[in-house]
Amino acid sequence: MAQAAKSAAAGESKRVQFDMPPRSVERLQRLVEVTEASSYAEVVKNALRLYEALIDEVEAGGEVYIKKSGNLSTLKIFGA
């Protein structure tokens, strides 16, 4: 088993660091505020869960819709 897989299996955290352009940092800060998240990490973890769920649905042949003012429209994901 690879080291990363062993760490994940054991429930150990792994530090990940990346650079973001200023606009992305502003978006992240806004999401922390509007969701009342305790950290950037919480926002990123929630975003990854949502992103993964969307990918799973699309890969399974599903479509994701947005309902606004009673009207349904397909959410275009991944340039689809």
Textual characterization of the structure:
By secondary structure, this protein is mainly alpha-helical. It has a domain at 20-74. The protein contains three helices and two strands. The chain has helices spanning 3-9, 22-35, 40-59; strands spanning 65-68, 71-74. Strands 1-2 form a two-stranded antiparallel sheet. α2 (22-35) crosses α3 (40-59).
In whole angstroms, the N-to-C terminal distance is 36 Å
Sheet with most strands: strand arrangement: 1-2
Report the average pLDDT across residues: 88
Per DSSP E runs of 2 or more residues, the count of β-strands stands at: 2
User: Over the alpha carbons, how many angstroms does the gyration radius reach?
Assistant: 17 Å
The helical percent reads 40-55%
Report the order of strands and helices.
HHHEE
Number of separate helices: 3
Strand content: 5-15%
Largest sheet features: 2 strands, antiparallel
List low-pLDDT spans: none
Assign the structural class, choosing from mainly alpha, mainly beta, alpha/beta, alpha+beta, or little secondary structure. Answer: mainly alpha
- Categorize the overall geometry: extended
Key structural traits:
80 residues; single chain; two-stranded antiparallel sheet; 3 helices; mainly alpha
Summarize the structure in short.
The chain contains 3 helices and 2 strands.
SSE blueprint:
Layout: H1 3-9, H2 22-35, H3 40-59, E1 65-68, E2 71-74
Antiparallel strand pairs: 1-2
Helix pairs in contact: 2-3
